[in-house]
Amino acid sequence: MATIDELLANNREFAAPLAEKHLDVAPSRRLAIVACMDSRLDVFAALGLGDGEAHILRNAGGVITDDVIRSLAVSQRRLGTREVMLIHHTDCGLEKITDDGFRAELEEMTGISPSFAIESFSDVEADVRQSILRVRRSPFIPHRDAVRGFVYDVDTHRLREVEAGD
Q: In angstroms, rounded to a whole number, what is the distance separating the alpha carbons of residues 3 and 140?
């Protein structure tokens, strides 16, 4: 059985005993979280969140890209979020590559230089600080005073806060 077919079977088993319910599209905690896509980070479990409580935006590195700013703008301007939590983590794959090296690899394999930024980094805390500043400086994000950044330790499962330093 293919992995997706297994996951569909898991979903049927998951959904069968649950009562139908409708949650509001606006997250009840008025919170948006930007996190890395790393499979070792279960955002809901790590933070004790339930369904409908927060928007969760994920990408490689949890970096603040134009698309993340777009999603945060919608989250705040149309769906009522007021706080932004940024979560990077230890042992991140983006620490193991370089922008130039990965860009060259992609171009060599495809014949096309990617138009997107790679956003690799060598210092996770510095990258968290940069991400905080990108959100705080965006004119598209109206609620920029409650933006905080953290590093999740993939071994201990604990968060440590990183001060913005702006």
A: 39
